[in-house]
Amino acid sequence: MSWIKKLLRPLGIVAPYILRNSQTVAYPTERLMFKERFRGRHQFFFERCISCGICSRVCPCASIEMVEAEGHEKTYPSIDYNTCSFCGYCVEFCPKQALEFTDVVELAVDDRSTLKYSPERLSEVPDIKDLVPRMKRRTEAYLTDKEMKYRKVKDV
């Protein structure tokens, strides 16, 4: 009789989870909508930057370097995402809010040298539809009293 209990006990534990909604998002076709304070890839604004260099000085990973940009006289931040920890100090300490976070998380590349973003590249944020061409809908995560669930927000 004990071998039957040993056989049925794992099924009793797993059964409630089988009947619940999915706990994941089907990423290529669905993409989460992130909250306002989410830390994705940076966006840089040339017109706001005063080239003070505070962002590069407060970066604990030394991921930000001040470089000259084409067509501009001052030096501007260049971010190396190989070492960036997305701590947010650069965004928080910028006196003119020249750096902001976006919801872009698609940073996968074949060549690690392309993860060094120049000021010009940081100023251009690609459209999500270009980054994830198979995306059909956006979903939003929300909490119930027992679990996290997902709901469709809009079709793309």
Describe this structure in words.
Helices cover 24% and strands 24% of the residues. The protein has helices at 2-19, 54-58, 89-93, 119-123, 128-131; strands spanning 30-32, 42-44, 64-68, 75-80, 99-101, 116-117, 137-143, 148-155. It has a single domain (21-155), classed as Alpha-Beta Plaits. A three-stranded mixed β-sheet has the order 1-7-8, with no helix packed on it. The protein has a three-stranded antiparallel β-sheet with strand order 3-4-6. The chain is elongated and about 80 Å long. It is α+β, with helices and mostly antiparallel strands and 156 residues long. The model has no long low-confidence stretch (mean pLDDT 91). The chain contains five helices and eight strands, in the order αββαββαββααββ.
